Amino acid sequence: MIDLSGKVALVTGAGAGIGREIARWLARAGCDVAVNDLDGDRAARGVAAVTAEGRRGLAVPADVRAPGAVESMVAAAIAGLGRLDVAVNNVGLMGDAPQSDFADLEAEDIRSVIDRNLVATILCCVAEAKALKEQAEGGVILNVSSGESTRPALRLAAYGAAKAGINHLTQTMATELGPDGIRVLSIAPGTTLTETVRPVFDDEHVARVVESLPLRRMTEPEELGRLAVFLASDLARCITGQFILADAGAWLSRTRPPISPGSAGA
């Protein structure tokens, strides 16, 4: 087990799904964790997952699309847990109308997807980078992207573009913040059947997705939690600016399952 004892992490979108598993596994490795979610009750459930691992948890609910709210969230995490060492930016939603033919995209839907993914991540990164630079002890920022950023995101053009923007952002940040000892990486999940994603797929579609994957299985949320722990640890201290695919080999596949409601991306 990797030991992150004495470290403090902040995980956005950690009230459920991938974010909650990342928070739980960071806590299992020894981190105290500030749990962000737009919904206060979900943030509290994320905190419960942290405290169940014997670590301190702190709910910091906020809408991370709002600049002032993000700065307050980071300040509250540091005030409540003493410092910041690891920040995981996991917030990302497909929007109110996630699937649309490209020619039918509406301006409002495009802006919603970009705001909920790229803009939210940038705002969080700015506030986190400022805090880590002020501490002057280095740190790690992990941005959660998507496998949809590595291939044509059919009927998900705005979402795929936003996630690809996060990958580019990660490279730029890593270059600028490296001299301060701050590592920045991007994690790109493939199809991950969280409690919010699973109801979107019927069993037949899930089977088609699995058949298209080289490993013939989907990524599990807890596997992304373990990956985050590794990347946050000194075992990965020479790795920065990288885009880590955790997609069961989906990017290798030459076949794609037919489009159905929802997305095969994270």
Question: Could you explain the architecture of this structure?
Answer:
With 266 residues, the protein is α/β, with parallel strands linked by helices. The chain has 7 helices and 7 strands; from the N terminus they run βαβαβαβαβαβααβ. It has a single domain, classed as 3-Layer(aba) Sandwich (Rossmann fold). A 7-stranded parallel beta sheet has the order 3-2-1-4-5-6-7, sandwiched between helices. It starts with 7 loop residues before the first strand and ends in a 20-residue tail after the last strand.
Low-confidence stretches: 259-266
The largest sheet has its strands arranged as 3-2-1-4-5-6-7
- Rg result: 17 Å
Reading off the top of the CATH hierarchy, the class is best stated as Alpha Beta
Major β-sheet profile: 7 strands, parallel
Quick one: overall form?
Answer: globular
Considering DSSP H and I runs of 4 or more, what fraction of the residues is helical? Answer: 40-55%
Task: Please outline the helices and strands.
Blueprint: E1 8-11, H1 17-28, E2 32-35, H2 40-51, E3 57-59, H3 67-81, E4 86-89, H4 107-135, E5 139-144, H5 157-177, E6 182-189, H6 203-212, H7 221-232, E7 243-246
Parallel strand pairs: 1-2, 1-4, 2-3, 4-5, 5-6, 6-7
Helix pairs in contact: 1-2, 1-7, 3-4, 4-5
Keywords:
single chain, 266 residues, alpha/beta, seven-stranded parallel sheet, 7 helices, 7 strands, 42% helix, globular, disordered C terminus
